[in-house]
Amino acid sequence: MYLNGATEGSLGGPNAGRLDAWIARYDSTGNQTWIRQFGTIDDDAASAAAPDGAGGVYVSGSTRGGLGGPNAGYLDAWIARYDSAGNQVWIRQFGSSDDNWALAAAPDGAGCVFVSGQTLGNLGGPNAGRVDAWIARYDSAGNQTWNR
Questions:
Q1: Would you say the pTM of this structure is higher than 0.90?
Q2: pLDDT exceeds 90 at position 66
Q3: Closest CA relative to residue 105, chosen from 44, 43, 23
Q4: Cβ atoms of 48 and 4 closer than 8 Å
C-alpha cells in the first residue's frame, strides 16, 4: 500500500522549501518499508499514487517550482515512477501558462500510466471554460505518448 501527500516539515528527509511532496510504502501488516520526501523551494504536493504492477509505484501531483523540469506557469502537474526500493526511476513535469493539477494516476497493465487532472490553461488542447479536465498517457520510460 502507498500513501502520499505534502508536508511543511521533515517527514522523510530534509524539507526543501515551503511544502514538500512525499510518498511512503507500507507492507501488508502496516509496517512502513520506506518513505521519500522531495520538493523545490516552492510548494510541491503529491495527490495520487498507483502501484505499477512491477513492485513500484506511480505518483503524481503539482508544483510551483521546477520539480521535474522548468515550470511552465504558476502551478504545474507532474508524474513520477518509483521502484520497489523507493528509488525514483523518472519524473516528468508539464503544464501551461495557467494552473494545472495532477489528481489521479492509473497503470494501464502494459507498463504505461494514465495521469489526469484539471487545468485553467491550454493543456492538451484549447481551454473550453474556467476549469477543464485532462488525461495523458506516459510510457514505461516516462515519455508522454498523448495528452487530451
A1: yes
A2: yes
A3: 23
A4: yes
